[in-house]
Amino acid sequence: MTGGPTGGPTGGLTGRLGGRLAFGGDYNPEQWDESVWKEDDLLMRWAHVNLATVGVFSWALLEPEEGRYDFGWLDAHLDRLHANGVAVDLATPTASPPPWFTLAHPDAMPVTDTGVRLTHGSRDTYCLAAPTYRQAALRIATALAERYGEHPAVAMWHVHNEYATVCWCDHAAAAFRTWLRARHGTLDAVNEAWGTAFWSQRYGSWDEILPPRATQWHRNPGLALDYRRFWSDEALAAYREQRDAIRAHTAPDRPVTTNLMLPGYQTLDLWSFGREVDVVGIDHYPCGPGLDAAADIAFGADRARSFGGGKPWLLVEQGANTVYTADRTLPKEPGDILRHSLAHIAHGSDGALFFQWRQSKAGAEVWHSAMVPHAGPDSRIFREVADTGAVVARLGEVTGSVVRAQAAVLHDSDCWWALDGQGLPSADLDYHGELRRAHRALWDAGITADFAHPADPGLSRYRLLVAPALYLLSDAAAESLRAWVQTGGTLLVQHFAGVVDPDHQARLGGYPAEPLREALGVRVEEFRPLAAGASLRLSDGSTSTTWSESLRLTAPAEAFATYTEGMLADQPALTRNRYGAGTAWYASTRLDDAAYGALVARVAAGAEVHPELPLPRGVEAVRRHAPDGTASWLFLLNHTASPVAVRTEGHDLLTARPLPAAGLTLPPGGTAILRQG
Amino acid sequence: MTGGPTGGPTGGLTGRLGGRLAFGGDYNPEQWDESVWKEDDLLMRWAHVNLATVGVFSWALLEPEEGRYDFGWLDAHLDRLHANGVAVDLATPTASPPPWFTLAHPDAMPVTDTGVRLTHGSRDTYCLAAPTYRQAALRIATALAERYGEHPAVAMWHVHNEYATVCWCDHAAAAFRTWLRARHGTLDAVNEAWGTAFWSQRYGSWDEILPPRATQWHRNPGLALDYRRFWSDEALAAYREQRDAIRAHTAPDRPVTTNLMLPGYQTLDLWSFGREVDVVGIDHYPCGPGLDAAADIAFGADRARSFGGGKPWLLVEQGANTVYTADRTLPKEPGDILRHSLAHIAHGSDGALFFQWRQSKAGAEVWHSAMVPHAGPDSRIFREVADTGAVVARLGEVTGSVVRAQAAVLHDSDCWWALDGQGLPSADLDYHGELRRAHRALWDAGITADFAHPADPGLSRYRLLVAPALYLLSDAAAESLRAWVQTGGTLLVQHFAGVVDPDHQARLGGYPAEPLREALGVRVEEFRPLAAGASLRLSDGSTSTTWSESLRLTAPAEAFATYTEGMLADQPALTRNRYGAGTAWYASTRLDDAAYGALVARVAAGAEVHPELPLPRGVEAVRRHAPDGTASWLFLLNHTASPVAVRTEGHDLLTARPLPAAGLTLPPGGTAILRQG
Amino acid sequence: MTGGPTGGPTGGLTGRLGGRLAFGGDYNPEQWDESVWKEDDLLMRWAHVNLATVGVFSWALLEPEEGRYDFGWLDAHLDRLHANGVAVDLATPTASPPPWFTLAHPDAMPVTDTGVRLTHGSRDTYCLAAPTYRQAALRIATALAERYGEHPAVAMWHVHNEYATVCWCDHAAAAFRTWLRARHGTLDAVNEAWGTAFWSQRYGSWDEILPPRATQWHRNPGLALDYRRFWSDEALAAYREQRDAIRAHTAPDRPVTTNLMLPGYQTLDLWSFGREVDVVGIDHYPCGPGLDAAADIAFGADRARSFGGGKPWLLVEQGANTVYTADRTLPKEPGDILRHSLAHIAHGSDGALFFQWRQSKAGAEVWHSAMVPHAGPDSRIFREVADTGAVVARLGEVTGSVVRAQAAVLHDSDCWWALDGQGLPSADLDYHGELRRAHRALWDAGITADFAHPADPGLSRYRLLVAPALYLLSDAAAESLRAWVQTGGTLLVQHFAGVVDPDHQARLGGYPAEPLREALGVRVEEFRPLAAGASLRLSDGSTSTTWSESLRLTAPAEAFATYTEGMLADQPALTRNRYGAGTAWYASTRLDDAAYGALVARVAAGAEVHPELPLPRGVEAVRRHAPDGTASWLFLLNHTASPVAVRTEGHDLLTARPLPAAGLTLPPGGTAILRQG
């Protein structure tokens, strides 16, 4: 549980912030003139801003032509911010190459799988595998590190921005072949892994291997999966290159990180990134209003914490007034800015940053909300931002404290990528949706949950694991899960699990992979997907959709609900197996939300995993613990529209008083942070 | 109010038609053989055809190989038509380059934004910015003008056909840069206008500027908007080039024009085209059946009239039996051919033409209806066409008369293009839909309406202006609207108005742009888009969707309806401000159709803008005025399925008798044209 | 009724199988190791497998680099299979060129209509018109024929796999021009056929003609239609090339064929293929569950039989547990494997094969079901497969027997392709949907139906013809249908029929094409498509959608139902004409399913076309006849969930006993095969 090279919980950041939580956001002063900068200084103080992310989109100004740098303007802003008490999260601008880059290096522009070469005019338009791009990115990052590595304003380094662009060009093809040699060793091993004996796909030379470009019919799923892995690793290598260059020029208490996109992006293996960043930083914009936003924040925050191994992490971007839905941006409700910020902090963030400080007056994000909206500081949004800053400023003592969970949801990028493929038996196999639903069921039950990788060697820290979409499973992970159940764990596995190995090769002789099958006491013989919109009724009265399976049980596994219709009538649908000291549950069909929630609650209760406090649904109680065990802080967040009485005790950080004996009543939307023994 | 170089109301056309309204259509005799031509002559006389558009698709026959012309066949057709009493609207064939053109000039084929170069095999496949295309087009147009400039059959010139093809190729890029230099002067000014400081988009040389081609993420909205402007100007330049070449060889009483596509196409700024054509000509196919078709005709016709500054204009194409819907072509009902033709004439067209005379027996438009259908003259369609021709032939006295309106709907291509962009707060911001809805509300209320550009210096001719989607607004137009209200105008502005300037830069300090804000007495602080499908109830019982806003009012502005829910409860939703001698209304949410119609009617009544006659919805009364004020003609069009009694007087042009004192009764679908004092 | 070069009903196949029906499937042993091969031998015997399709995807192993062959592994498998009593359907592997092929011949990769050149990584990625592809394909096919032409295991040759890839590249363009010269003779004739006088499309040289690549607007329908014809002919030429090479090296009692895709693929003219294969082979996967699957099997099987001129044919691929729907694969119900196999045999298949023997453990079809599923032989699926094999093994005596039908549905690829174009009056004109619906109406009525081409010279073998979507009709076919009605046939023609000729040129003077118009006693003057979702009520109480027409009747044609609304009120909707000794019915609107079914049943009854037995809907009785008339076999298939008593007699092949006098009762899902006199 150490944070980066210097060992502080957030890699030294909170030390540089004087033990305070971070509060602030992206700051792009190059969009504005001096009169605005002066107002910015004033308003930042007013709003208790202590950290600004600078330089994310500054490449074109920092290097106006190839090899010629202009740092003067940035010097001035860093000095000004520093003088104003605002530390800087200094970004390398490599996500947005300037227009000159395209003309100088057209081969470094990304190419789609249908062969369209993109061009500049937006952002994020580059091929990570193009040598000229990588060299140019490393040069500007190094130049920044050399110049600002010891600048007193700089408290943190922000490499790149939201790695997400994927490319299918010839540079990518070459890099993919190199990666494949490293992963598989020989071409024979590649052929074996991908099953190229089928469909006449056997590769006779490395040069024949291409990215998964447009082809006539389904692609080879092994190749497609390896390409996802390769690309994530390529992005990670690009990150590490810059990180190492920065580390060579900066003090070790200035953590280096990048801002990861959550929650629905699936380009990167975030477990790998979590191991390479000094602090996990995420961008997180709720994708629904109301209670859905609160659950979404917990979902993203719990993932961020888990990717970093449980350490405090940092919310690098949120929207002041931004709730994304499919085709529009909804506004936040009064109080959301504070409560959403505190919700992130409750789940382990050592601060709350926004994108961006001041709403752009031009450009593609002119309608993206900001801490200071177009209307200016005389606005509800800025007032709530400033109020939030004031509250966050009172919470410095929680920095570095950690959240502990007894339950975890299994989460594996390989599964996600493999299920995002072609030729699957049903269009309703939605990795991300199932992941969310499992977490939401625990959240609805008031249970704080981590995410864990199926091959995590430290599963013993959990009492309960939920595996909502465990499509792909390695032999080692199957054995690890089995052993964990045997020694007392409670595992809930859901349909279509453990059916392929890491090469996307099917498990034979019945699913899921042994020895998980042994722990579950279940052998799946046949999948029976349901028609779109069709549903089934089970013997316990619950209903389900999407999927069913023909199972055979091994004693002492028992069905606690059976199918009632068709070929599967009276056959087991939901099963439970006492295995060693533990219990393994299996759901062979996709229960409707209510039944699924009830099942998860029942499994959790069986595992003796309970909420911090018994509270109504939508009222969160999340605890952060001092690493040395001397104190803990209970965050109470009422996301509902009703007041709720909470019987507890402690020192209220917001009122700076002890709670009365009767506890407290959280008003609708209200929050409290209590220091407890 | 003069029409082209010779000053006649329709540029001399009706003079050449002997003072008659134009009746006829596109005539493509090259599809047929001599026996058909003979039948054509007979049937055209029978149907009172006096104008035929010839040559639109004839390039491949007129110039069968590059530089070799064959005019003989066209000579014969022009002579034949002339002998038969049919004047010719002679088209330049430049919308359809022949196949040889592609092989000779592959670089002149258009390229999509994803880099797909299109090829021939259809029509409209060319890049307007390609020099070789422009030269070839000018050559054939000049050759036609030289040969037929003084041909007695030629009464009008029809440049090109439906300018609509857009291109993203390198020729387009070069022309775009030239255009940008002219608009912005310096590269610094371009960078400033587009806000390229954001997202690292600063351009260091002109060569770096590209059309808005495929890129990774949202495009710069300033660039995207300028590209729309550029392309419209490029099309206009192409038009002017041909027009000037023709004018050099033809008598000044032969107007030159092009056929503009209406109503949903948004490639061109039709205000600019209106200034450069001798007569506004439009193609207009109703996009719905029944009353929707009638309202759509009024919508298109009122726009056509407005683009030409109020002069008579010409319906160049309509469909005999064609009502377009999303995925099929519906037939017209009996009587529609006549009533639709008269509806266009009522709104100011000096004629009614069709595409096309005879239904093609082959090719891509084999199922496009025509005046003479596949079934031949023994058909309902041809009989109705011929009956319509006979009626139109009786209306010669209305030629040159004009329609006058007291109300106008504000309409600006810049707004349309800007709202057709990426990154907007809601997918439901539909410029064209709102434009239609505003016009429809006036039409339903029986009010004849113009369209007006927000920066029109002559707004004083109106008592009422409705601004349904005034997203983009220049400083000058904001001031012009303010001043117009101050001197007595009544203005209705709808949500999300005046929020960006002509560079697509946001207005700061609250919306909309000053000094319109002053006239409205409203400062918008925050937008609050609604979820898809969500609706709000206002204090007056009306409902609304899509959008809401947080407003602050300046006295004497008052709320006449407030929000009732959420953060905005009891806050103003609909406001009215007495300002100087005028009134400015603001609707900060999108009212449902019924409430919106009621609001528009209320605002109109407040402005003392009334219908010609109080008639049921769907029964039109539109008046054309002799320019010298000596007479007017009242067109009565019953688009409903019920008879309607009309108490009025005058000379009935169809019966050639004075109306009886009791007035007349229009049967369902019936029409009357009355000459009045 | 001879089958290929040797005259046996299935081209000698069943002779080589010892007079047994074929049972087995695709066998791809290169995916597995020796231990699996040993199990395969055992399980194939257990399941009564006697035919395995080998080599479909083996190119990369057979020719690991260009020109170097490795046949040793295939020798071993063929010897092993032969030793195990399994005959081989030996495939040429040309549908899946190996990766080396792409690198050696990039110009032979297919190009989409938007210019995207596809690459390997899937299957079916090649341009049939590329000379290097054709040469490579012919080389490997010849090498296989030379080596295995006399191999005792080989009972049949399987050229390629599912010809379906279409290409728009320059090779395709060159081949298209050659094809056009052959079809049209001169460029003038091409111009005339395509009506290039419209839209300035006249071609001045052959080089100007291109495939229907991306263009700005609708394509020329004549060109589009000719390209479909060309491509089908190109595929047929590719097939014939390989077939002829094989025939040069194999005994004439080993039939050569290819597996055609059914039922919704429309790339090929299957009538042409039917004339060139020794045995029609089809791949057929039901596209719906339950009764829809049964009707779909009949639909596909009746088409397969018809394409081969009524001869026995062969089901080359079915899915053991595969029911395709739009976005998922549904499982089969218990008993379906047997009943579906027997349903194909009932309709004339001399066997039932599956794709594939053993479910792949890797690759793009890892979730495609197989005879031996992942779970292994201890599974419902394999047990049912083996049971089915045992039943099929008892039916050897039906080999070579044929199905005879008194009714046929007219079916023409030209119609299909022409209706799959741009610019049609309604999006609801669905050739394939109407074809299915016509067949289903007959199937629901218990009537065994063929399909017949409109220009089939042998229509006199039918009493009833249904023409559900006869959009395109040649003069000759129109005359042939007229004459057939005159001599006693009963014809039902549906809306929008006979309206274009084979060049896609419209029929003038009223539709449909003469002299069909004479036989129907109907002249269609005007089409009146309906709005999406709209419906009409007819005078007989039935309802209809999609389409209506304005008709004029010629005595003695009479309306037996009229329209009731709008312009067509009281005008004829459904008509009947006594013509010569026959009757011609016309439906000018698209009746709802129930009314359409009733109409078809009424027309069939009028034609004295009756089911084999009066049975409930969903219970099939289909008869196969010994060619010499000495016996027949009645297949009874209860596709419903209710038992049904059948009063009939005969020798029951499954029980090997005569039926009792009371007949038999088929349980739900039950089947019986009775030999009758």
From TrEMBL, chains A, B, C:
GO cellular component labels: beta-galactosidase complex
Residues at which Zn(2+) binds: 127, 167, 169
The Gene Ontology biological process terms listed for this entry are: galactose metabolic process
Which residues does UniProt mark as catalytic?
162, 317
Q: Which UniProt keywords apply?
A: Glycosidase, Hydrolase, Metal-binding, Zinc
- Family label: Belongs to the glycosyl hydrolase 42 family.
Designated name of the protein: Beta-galactosidase
